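Appendix B, Record 12. Input sequence as logged:
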Amino acid sequence: MKSKKVAVLGAGPMGLSVAYQLVKNGHDVTVFEADDRVGGMTASFDFGGLNIERYYHFICANDQPHFDMISEMGLDDKLKWTKTKMGYYYQGELFSWGNPIALLKFPKLSLVSKFRYGLHAFLSTKRSDWSKLDKQEASSWIKRWIGNSAYDVMWKSLFDLKFYNFSNNLSAAWIWTRIKRIGNSRFNLMEEKLGYLDGGSEVLLVAMKEKIEQLGGKIELSSPVRKVEIEDGKIVGLNVNDEFHEFENVISTVPAPYIPQIIPQLPEKELQQFKALSNIAVVCVIAKLKKAVTENFWLNINDSRMDIPGIVEYSNLNPLDDHIVYVPYYMPAEHEKYADSNETFVEKVKKHLKLLNPELDDTDFIDIHVSRYRYAQPICEPGFLDKLPPVDLPVEGLYVADTSYYYPEDRGVSEGIRFGIDLANKVFR
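Logged structural output:
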């Protein structure tokens, strides 16, 4: 096939995978990234001398596309596995979680509820066909399996504090994939198995960037695309930092809510479809501590004194010199809480972590950092697939996708790699 000149918008895992596959296939590729580094939500930053992701990431045992790319970049020796633990902090008490024994010992559910909860989790890991879940609403689906009282104890706080006004209108298929992915990442029935890259996600992202450049591709950082130019139903180029770049083919991987801003000449039907998509934002507080908060990697929280559904104690996955804890606040960007200052979030996190571990005091906090991401999580409603605009839009040479298009899979590095490679091969065979 004749080589194509292609612009890829966004240098997250999907954008890099698209670009890598295209240059492997012999195409002339330029990636435009608004940030000053590759990675998107996977990007790292200097946290007081520690290079670490702005937002938490981990690898599951079934993330095959991720493993394949790690191998292709020659980084197999960087992939590490840990037996991690999960906990549940319920109204002032810390409980073990994540295995049948912990479920049986948990005193806040009846024996019948425990059986129904365990059966639901087990069957979710074995399900492969999600078509019947696609148009079902998630909270109702869970309640039918485990009952209202168990839902209130185990799920309600998580839904309310992550999805807010969207909590009762989520696709059951979308929630099911989350249960299945974690449930199938185990050494055995009793032990959870999660992985990480020594050096963080940046090790893989930078390797992909360098490989793209070695193969003749270009990656332009700090280069936000202001507008995709269309004439007579065809792509003609891009406006990047007020400069015109001629292209006949564009693949956008930036968050879908940006599309109406940068491609305002889309046909009205598709334009309205993009405008109708919902997303929530995140304020992610990262604390560096002298001592651990708990022994868990993942701690779900249901406590009336805390407005968070959980914390991720990353150093219990990846052993580091200091203890690293991520405290993510997901919420609609329109919510009044999102306008709170970074200092407000920092003070709340300090208070919450000291509640979780009363042995912590202010002297244990070495450093603390706040990151914000406006379009962090697409909201996948029942029947979500039918609401997405097509990847191949009715403009010649234009293709658009973001993490929404992984549905029913959740956003993640592995899905980004899989989707990006498939997209590149499908668009330009």
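The radius of gyration is 22 Å.
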